[in-house]
Each structure stands twice: as structure tokens, then as C-alpha cells.
Amino acid sequence: MKWTKFYLPDAYSPTMEQLVYFHDHTMSIITSITILICILLNSLLWNKLIDLNMNEHQMIETWWTILPTIVLFLIAIPSLKILYSMEELINPTISIKSMGHQWYWSYEYSDKFCKELESYMKYNKKNDFRLLEVDNKMKAPFLTQIRMIFSSSDVLHSWTIPCLGIKMDAVPGRINQSSLMIKKPGIFMGQCSEICGTNHSFMPIMLESIKLNKFIKWISYALSDWN
Amino acid sequence: MRNHMKTVMPTAIMAAAKKSAQKSEEVLETAPFDPRFPNTNQTRYCYQSYLDFHRCQKVKGEGYEPCAYFKRVYTSLCPFEWVEKWDTQISEGNFAGHI
Amino acid sequence: MKGMSLSSLKSHPSLIPLYVCVAVGAAGATFYTLRLATRNPDVSWTKKNDEPWNEYSNKQYKFYSPNLDYSKIESPAPKY
């Protein structure tokens, strides 16, 4: 077992990078508080500073109210900043729709083209990623601003790719949006993260990020002539 | 046509690639950001654009160029399933929105 | 109870930051709820306008936006 298993996956999108930084920031605060508490408990166990008449100490009470407030702000402000910037969408180049079904994902590309993919889990073959491999991978270009659109046709699902820092609920009758910028080519995997029925564990997500020209070529075979 | 492409010389493929890069500008265009709908929930952006397209067509008549903007937006944003459902409702005359 | 009156608060000054925190928290929560109720197009108090979000084509109603200033972006939708 590797030590990296105790850590977050490598970040492949600016959002995930920010989340990793935030995790590290919060973790450093948590660690220092834990160490401080351990030291205090230890000294409490072993010292003999007993004073029968000591009932209150205004100064220390004041400070241990103010300092935690400051610590909470140190956590809350970057957290809110990331939360709000994750919701922002900067000039998307393409929109990709992802629909949750019982129990598979389908992807719709319909900007100036018209393509629909149905992405079912592939049953175990040699060299496949067990329970993660799908027959039709979703394709997306890297270093491109993408608007991801999520909805569902039956029950709640949740489209998740940890490496890209995306987790978005697919809600029937509602369209959720999330911006996505993949930094590198590769295959990214995730699983449905909202319990959606019997085969909830068997509707994985596989995203292949490819070069923009390759993506255009791939999509161009499906160019529709409605425009 | 596709068979022909496979047999031509690499230079022609290069030219085709260049063409596709130029093409990317025209091929890749999607619904822009709209300050009316700045949140994660984009349901109304889709529905409003669908309504606006049909209202626009009603006011300006079919084939009026700027109306196509709304159609581009709703095709980019709405799931195919929804558009199909609304289209059949309109043709059957039982669509719930005000057009 | 000690600290609930102004005179007893003087002998327990350590309670002041606690009261300040609670007051700021309550005020913030009230402000945000009221803002949602009055500014957000998800909430309509009258039935005069059934598409209130159309009034925000060049305004900002999000509470906070770190990178973009929505008030400077005009809705790209054509008028007809």
C-alpha cells in the first residue's frame, strides 16, 4: 500500500487544485489544534497547580473566545471563496450534457452538432478497470472551458470525478451546471454518488480528455445540418 | 468521400487538420453566460430560451435570423428528452407555457 | 443569570466577545435571509411579473462573485 492512498487524488483541474490547497490549509489548522489540545490535556493530567479559590479568570475566557473566532474565519473565508468560484462559469466553449438514468449515464453533445452516447458499465475482462470500465467513454477536450449540464430522467444521481473536483447532483426536472477545465489528457474515472437503486454501484463514469482538434474531428462526424 | 481521405497524401491530411483548426471557431460555439441565470440551477435558462424562441417566431415570423439565437441556446442546454416532449406538446396544442 | 444584565456584565467582561459573536451571527443570518426574500428572482411576493429574472439581464443578484462582475455583463439575448 502506498502512502498516497491516504491523500486526495492528483488534481487535474484548477478547481481540484484549489480544493487540495484548501484541504491542506484546513488540515494544518486541525493538526495544530489537535497538538495543542494534547499538550494541554497532558499538562492537566500531570501538574499539581491546584487552587481552591480560583473560580474565574476573565482574561483567558476572553481570549479563548476571540481566538477560535479568528480561526473559524480563517477557515470560512477561503471555503466560501472556493464555493462561490466553483459556481462561476467563464465563457464556455462547449456544453456537454450528462443525463443520469437507471442505471447508466448518457452524454449529449448538441451545440452545433448532435451526438448522444450511452455509457454502460463493461463487465469484467482482463485489463479492464473492475467496476469502472464503460463501453462508450465520454470525450472532452482538455485546456478548454467546458460547461457541464446535469439532469436525470428518473431518480437522483450524482456525477462525480474526484480528480477533476466535480460532484454534481443530477436531479430529474432540473438542470444543474458546472464549469470544467481539464488540464491534461487522460482517462478520468468516477462513480455515481447518490444512491439511486439496485445498480447504483454499477454505473461508473469514464471521461477521456483529448486534444481539441481530435475532439472536433470526432464530433464532426455527427455534424447536423439543422443550422 | 471518407475512403478517398484515407488514401490521400499526408500533406492533404495536414491541410485538413489546418482546416479543422479554423473550423473549430465555427464548430465550437455554445450558449454564452447569461447574467439572468448566474447560479448552478440552469433550468430556467433552458426553458426561458425555449419560450423566447417560440415567442420570437410568433412576433417576427419564421425564418427571422436573430430568433435562431434562442434555438441555439436551448438546443445546447436542454436535454433532448425535454425538447422532444415540449415539441410534441406544442404540435398537439397542450403546451403549458405562454407563447 | 450572571452576565444577562449590564451591571453584572461589567464584572464578567469575558462574556462580551461571546455576545458580539452571537449578535454578528444572528444579524448575518437575518440579513442573508431577507436579501434572498427580496432580491432573489426565485422569490416573488406579487403575481405582477411571472418571469422576474428577466429584470436581471444587466444586474447582479448573486451575493458574492470572486472573479466576475455580473453587473458589467449584459445579457447576450437579442430583443424582439
Automatic annotation (TrEMBL), chain A:
Q: Required cofactors, per record?
A: Cu cation
What protein name does the entry list?
Cytochrome c oxidase subunit 2
Cytochrome oxidase subunit II copper A binding domain span: 91-221
Q: Which GO terms describe its cellular component?
A: mitochondrial inner membrane
Per the record, membrane topology reads:
Multi-pass membrane protein
Q: Which reaction does it catalyse?
A: 4 Fe(II)-[cytochrome c] + O2 + 8 H(+)(in) = 4 Fe(III)-[cytochrome c] + 2 H2O + 4 H(+)(out)
List all membrane-crossing ranges: 20-41, 62-84
Entries under InterPro entries matching the protein: CcO_II (IPR045187), CcO_II-like_C (IPR002429), CcO_II_C (IPR034210), Copper_CuA (IPR001505), Cupredoxin (IPR008972), Cyt_c_oxidase_su2_TM_dom (IPR011759), Cyt_c_oxidase_su2_TM_sf (IPR036257)
Q: What does this protein do?
A: Component of the cytochrome c oxidase, the last enzyme in the mitochondrial electron transport chain which drives oxidative phosphorylation. The respiratory chain contains 3 multisubunit complexes succinate dehydrogenase (complex II, CII), ubiquinol-cytochrome c oxidoreductase (cytochrome b-c1 complex, complex III, CIII) and cytochrome c oxidase (complex IV, CIV), that cooperate to transfer electrons derived from NADH and succinate to molecular oxygen, creating an electrochemical gradient over the inner membrane that drives transmembrane transport and the ATP synthase.
| Family matches, as PANTHER family | CYTOCHROME C OXIDASE SUBUNIT 2 (PTHR22888:SF9), CYTOCHROME C OXIDASE, SUBUNIT II (PTHR22888)
> Which keywords annotate this record?
Copper, Electron transport, Magnesium, Membrane, Metal-binding, Mitochondrion, Mitochondrion inner membrane, Respiratory chain, Translocase, Transmembrane, Transmembrane helix, Transport
UniProtKB/TrEMBL annotation, chain B:
> Any idea where this protein resides?
Mitochondrion
The source's domain of life comes to Eukaryota
Q: Name one Pfam family in it.
A: COX6B
Q: Using the chain's own numbering, where are the disulfide bonds?
A: 46-78, 56-67
Q: Which UniProt keywords apply?
A: Disulfide bond, Mitochondrion
- What name does UniProt use for this protein? Cytochrome c oxidase subunit 6B1
Q: Which GO terms describe its cellular component?
A: mitochondrion; respiratory chain complex IV
Q: Which InterPro entries match?
A: COX6B-like (IPR048280), CX6/COA6-like_sf (IPR036549), Cyt_c_oxidase_su6B (IPR003213)
PANTHER family named in the record = CYTOCHROME C OXIDASE SUBUNIT 6B
TrEMBL record, chain C:
Highest taxon listed in the record's lineage: Eukaryota
Record keywords, A-Z: Membrane, Transmembrane, Transmembrane helix
Q: Which Pfam families match?
A: B12D
The membrane-spanning stretches of this chain are 15-34
- Report the protein name in the record: Uncharacterized protein
